[in-house]
Amino acid sequence: MRMAPVTMVLMGLAVPALTGCFSGLSSKLPAQQRYVLQPRLAAPAAPASAPAGSVVVLRPSAAAGLGGDGIAVLRPGARLDYYSDARWAGDAPSTLQSLVIDSLRNAGSFATVESDSGPFAAQYILGLELEHFEARYSGDGPPSIEVTLVCSLGRRSDRTVIVSFTAHSSVPADADRMQAVIAAFGQATAQALAQVAANIVPPAAAAH
């Protein structure tokens, strides 16, 4: 399924200056930018069968260092870091959970797709593990954005795993600038979401 271009929305939220202990003294810390990922999902193709079943998407468990709102950086020597003046608008696991829900709803394979905070019981449960969501530097030049989601779809009734697979995408940033890095995050996330939507379907649809 061809993905339409990803639209990135930049929200600049200035962090208030910290007032010093003495009158007239104030911090000169730079304003911190908050970024939102909003992949524009392609219009889905007509499903082979009518939507069936309901699925709950659990909040992803996250690898060490990926559970907050910092934009993670992996540097040579396996050093985990974060961009100093940039943050995601929300924590990474919650952001990915919302995007997976939107992607599955857009695909139209399930009759209903809800989060684990929803009030309704579902036939199926989708567990997610966020293994990679970082800008990876291998030397001089722009980073490559790595997004990896391990997905396991199971029946709620007996916790039987129906399908388990890994969605992975790697997209090089066009430049070592924040705007280019965020754009590459959007592209890599969109590609991973397309894989999730293609592989996570109700068992009846998978049989077809």
Layout of strands and helices, then pairs:
Elements (H helix, E strand, L loop, with lengths): L6 E6 L20 E6 L15 E4 L3 E2 L7 E6 L3 E10 L3 H16 L4 E4 L8 E13 L7 E12 L5 E12 L5 H22 L3 H5 L1
Helix pairs in contact: 1-2
In words, what does this structure look like?
The chain has one domain: Rossmann fold. Helix 1 packs across helix 2. Strands 1, 2, 3, 4, 5, 6, 7, 8, 9 and 10 form a 10-stranded mixed beta sheet that branches. It has helices spanning 92-107, 178-199, 203-207, and strands at residues 7-12, 33-38, 54-57, 61-62, 70-75, 79-88, 112-115, 124-136, 144-155, 161-172. The chain is an alpha/beta fold and 208 residues long. 21% of the residues lie in helices and 36% in strands. 29% of the residues are buried. Residues 1-26 have low confidence and may be disordered.
Query: The biggest beta sheet, please?
Result: 10 strands, mixed
Structural class: alpha/beta
Average residue pLDDT: 84
Following the backbone from N to C, one meets helices and strands in this order, namely EEEEEEHEEEEHH
Report low-confidence residues grouped into runs of 5 or more.
1-26
Query: How many helix segments?
Result: 3
Q: Please report the first level of CATH classification, the CATH class.
A: Alpha Beta
The total number of structural domains is 1
Shape, please?
A: elongated
User: Would you give the CATH topology?
Assistant: Rossmann fold
Radius of gyration: 19 Å
The percent range for helix content is 10-25%
| Strand residue percentage | 35-45%
Q: Quaternary arrangement of the chains shown?
A: single chain
Q: Based on DSSP secondary structure assignment, what is the total number of beta strands?
A: 10
Query: In CATH terms, what is the architecture?
Result: 3-Layer(aba) Sandwich
Specify the CATH homologous superfamily: ABC-type transport auxiliary lipoprotein component
End-to-end Cα distance, whole Å, is: 18 Å
